Amino acid sequence: MNQDKLYQHTQKQRWKFLLFLFAALIAAASLFYTNYLVKSLSKSERTKAEVWAMSTRSIMTMPDVDDQFISYVYAVRDSLSIPAIITDSKGNIIFWRDLDPNKTNIQEQVDSVNNTLEYDPVYFEKQLARMKRNHAPIALPLDTGETWSVYYLDSLALRQLRIFPYLQLSLIAIFLIIAYTVFNSIKKSEQNLVWVGMAKEAAHQLGTPISSLMGWLELVRTKFDAEDDSSLNEMERDVKRLEVVADRFSKIGSIPSLANHVIYQVIHDFVQYFKVRTSEKITFEITGDKTVEAKLNIPLFDWIIENLLKNAVNAIESEGKITINIIDNIAKEEIFIDISDTGKGMSKSNFDAIFQPGFTTRKRGWGLGLSLTKRMVDYHQGQIFVKESELGKGTTFRIILKSNLRYEPTQV
Question: At what angle do helices 298-315 and 263-275 cross, to 10 degrees?
């Protein structure tokens, strides 16, 4: 990767890190402030529980006083809304408040023997155990020397406040993920339109000089009586190749027409054209299944193979070998095309990055070849990825296409 692209990549990574750090600070500040509020309200509710307990004790132990003072104490006690239970020194429940009335009084009648209301003891045991886990008890000493214990639960508002920041941050995170996905999709769509426009314009601009070159070739053949001249024939093949390239660019952005082709034959034909235009020190080998078929668009598929072979050739510094292995995966009804070279290889950190537009390890590269290759593989409803690579030993790209053959399970 050249210096300018490396700088842009570093800047992009830095901005991502800063945005992530800023989001983490916001989340930490929200959790810290909510935790502060929860602690403050928790202290306030403990004070409420203490006041309620003392009010209840006063009502039970106060001597005869005027009705106005008794009404005041009752008003103070009843104004404190918090689930609570008071137990005596033996652990027996003697008072409670703000519990489920359907559980605390099962039968709306008075027991004639004990003169008490019937209640659900299991419900009380569960609530008491829950309160013991929630807060330390409040000791309430009496004049008789006995000590009551007051247990209580957090109010509904406080419990909701504890989970509110997590709920809030979760909703914000979901919103940001959706927003990022939408904006990223819009950005990619805009980039696609730019690529399509540039490709079609390039195809249009190439059309005139290509037609002119074909005319000049015919004129040279006629003028010098060179119908079978090998040099002119090779020039004609290259001009026709330019026509194919122009046709490729014109098809970008359009739905390609796919037809059944034998993969081995398509690759073999292209390799025969390609290898005579590369160094003699690089050998090519095609192995694997020679009959498997898939739906292909020949000009676009040739472009895929060309880009991968060019990358393989550039990775080989002096001499080496490029192998294309075609594998029929019968179980998944897929075709694997592995293109391996004996070049310099790459690090695993670049396995995904190499398919991003603008990413290149060459000083003069544009970083568009593999990005376009991935797009054309997508046109064929396939996949492409780096299967394996090792520095100094080579790289293997794998293309996965849907097989045109369908296999029915054998009946036993």
Answer: 50
Cβ atoms within 10 Å, residue 275: 16
The pLDDT score that the predictor gives to residue 384 is 95
User: CA 180, 385, 275, 301 torsion: positive or negative?
Assistant: negative
- Interval 277-294 mean pLDDT: 92
By percentage, how much of the chain surpasses pLDDT 90? Answer: 19
Question: May I ask the CATH class of domain 259-402?
Answer: alpha beta
Distances (CA, A) of 69 to 73, 223, 338, 357: 6, 127, 93, 82
Q: Are 152 and 143 in contact, with CB atoms under 8 Å apart?
A: no
User: Contact 103/120 with Cβ under 8 angstroms?
Assistant: yes
56: left (phi over 0), alpha (psi -120 to 50) or beta: alpha
Looking at residue 205, its pLDDT comes to 83
Half-sphere exposure of 63 toward its Cβ, with a 13 Å CA cutoff?
1
Contact 85, 129 (CB under 8 A): no
Encode pLDDT of 228-245 as tens digits. 888 888 888 888 878 877
Which strands form 93-97's sheet, in the order they lie side by side? 93-97, 84-87, 147-152, 138-141
pLDDT tens-digit series, residues 18-50: 877 887 888 888 888 888 888 888 888 788 777
Q: What share of the chain is helix, strand, coil (3-state, %, to 5)?
A: 55, 15, 25
Element (H, E) at 175: helix 156-224
226 vs 260 pLDDT, higher one: 260
Please classify residue 120 by burial: count the beta carbons closer than 10 Å to its beta carbon, then call 0-12 exposed, 13-18 middle and 19+ buried. middle
Distance of alpha carbon 403 from alpha carbon 398, whole angstroms: 15
| Residue burial 284-300, b: 16+ Cβ < 10 Å; e: rest | beeebbeebbbbbbebb
Report how far apart the first and last C-alpha atoms of the chain are (Å, whole number). Answer: 58
